[in-house]
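ZP: hey, is the magnesium ion complex queued? I don't see it on the tracker
AM: it wasn't, my bad. submitting now with these inputs:
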Amino acid sequence: MIEDKNQQRTQLSDLGEFGLIDHLTKHFKIKQNSTIKGVGDDAAVLNFDKKKVVVTTDLLIEGVHFDLSYVPLKHLGYKAIMVNLSDVYAMNAKATQVTVSIAVSNRFPLEALEDLYAGIETATKIYNVDLIGGDTTSSNTGLLISVTAIGEIESDNVVYRSGAKPNDLLVVSGDLGGAYMGLQVLEREKEVYKVNPNSQPDLEIYSYIIERQLKPEARQDIVKLLSDLNVKPTSMIDVSDGLSSEIIHICKQSKVGCDIYEEKIPLDPQVISTCEEFDIDSTTVALNGGEDYELLFTISQDDFPKIKANPNLTVIGFIKEEKEGVHLVTRADTRIPVKAQGWKNFNS
Ligand code: ADP
Ligand code: MG
């Protein structure tokens, strides 16, 4: 399908490896003072003075993490950067640089990689990070993208998963479950398209959840908001695998327990209506859906007045002693133990 979307097809071999790297990266501008040397030498050179540096990497593989039959390459480039910046923000740090490595098969024309890099460039512009390097190689199978993100932070401000204390409040940004339901809609449309390639799906009523799946935003704004409100979370993690796994990570590493209140979990109306349409329980989707890239964190109760009026933040739970365990308190007031469950084994 990729091939159909590109009118013009320039063979990658026409450029050679160095021509290709230069072609893809020459538009990128350096924005951060900490970047001394970006793309073009054997290694990048960075200067963080007295700041602490955070580093995180993610690997995305075609057929495992993305499906090019409905993911436009531009969105894929954008999302690959977001997934990594989200991890930097989850440390309470400021993202400053990224490297991007790709393995491509020769079924991709240059124009496809231009689309991928257009998405990467948009992300680096909006999030004010520098592309400082990467690696380019060929693949016999699908497309593979590996991004490394680097960030800076004053040592006292680092937030780990391990700092939650009993009586802290559990808070989440934005809303949950949208990315997973967007994926359900896209998967369904793919099946419809296989049967009838001339079908013209009207996806307008799913626009929010499809955007959550295809073009997620890392919550840089929440890190800034918390700093402006003078709130330092006691622990923090980003929601990549689903609320339940992330809560369990925080509780395990902090040696605490937690009650999560089902009625408090923030859901967009489109998530609720699409769950009804697909006959899936919306709480299950929020708990196990994943890929929302919201921030989940704990705060001391003393900080509650500072955040309570903010529509971007919802208190969804209460931290307890470790021996109390991790539970979902349902609308019917029953307590169900929460188990970690990544979205990949959602249906099993
Ligand atoms: P080396 O042979 O030393 O690995 P390369 O020819 O792979 O060098 O890379 C040359 C420069 O281009 C380096 O600065 C490298 O970081 C950068 N680079 C290579 N591939 C990419 C890519 N896909 N995206 C961004 N920068 C890249
Ligand atoms: Mg190289």
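AM: back. The first helix runs from residue 2 to 5.
ZP: great, adding it to the tracker
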